[in-house]
Design brief:
Layout lengths: L19 H6 L5 H14 L4 E2 L1 H11 L28 E2 H13 L2 H12 L6 E3 H16 L10 H13 L6 E3 H9 L1
Antiparallel strand pairs: 1-2, 3-4
Helix pairs in contact: 6-7
């Protein structure tokens, strides 16, 4: 008789990169740096994809002071967009490396594009207060664990209001990329 008790362990699928040369062409990392990143990534994520918890731990190794730990949950490369991995959502090695390349070695324009896309959750070309508040709460939640004194509960909303006072130049309740870029460049 066959027995299916659910305790069967499947071997981990080992991930092979699509080609470090291609990745090198899309990042500002050397081949040696990419090989080192890949080795570390493969050890922590043999499937080639990283979940939110592991992603945060890997990212924190690059920024041990915790200055940008809040961004670890929303980093995504490739198109310069952002994703907030939740349960079951993972980030592939290529997106991780491209996003890290922009943050560490990107031009001012690339970093501004990345930052705008971080807050433009639905990718409609505008940042709403709701979108920004969702990201700010995530960042403040992560900062709160290692910040003394801990931020007030109202701090994320206050931050969003301050941002919109500066960035929403025409007062329509949304920040376009043009408004964002113009204000940042000033």
């Amino acid at each position: 008789a066959d027995s299916c008790d659910g305790d069967v362990e499947l071997p981990a699928v080992r991930h092979q990169p699509e080609g470090l040369e291609q990745l090198q062409a899309h990042t500002k990392f050397t081949k040696k740096e990419l090989q080192s990143l890949y080795r570390g990534f493969k050890n922590d994520c043999p499937s080639g994809r990283v979940d939110k918890e592991t992603f945060t731990l890997i990212y924190a190794q690059f920024f041990p002071q915790g200055v940008v730990n809040g961004h670890a949950a929303v980093l995504r490369g490739g198109t310069g967009g952002a994703v907030s991995p939740g349960r079951g959502v993972t980030v592939p090695l290529q997106d991780f490396v491209v996003g890290l390349s922009v943050l560490l070695r990107g031009t001012v324009q690339e970093k501004l594009n990345w930052a705008f896309n971080l807050y433009d959750i639905n990718k409609d070309g505008c940042i709403t207060k709701e979108e920004m508040l969702a990201i700010m709460r995530s960042i403040y939640d992560m900062m709160g664990r290692c910040t003394l004194p801990a931020p007030r509960d109202s701090a994320p909303a206050e931050h969003v209001e301050h941002f919109f006072q500066k960035m929403d130049r025409n007062g329509d309740g949304v920040v376009t990329f043009e408004e964002f870029l113009e204000t940042c460049q000033q």
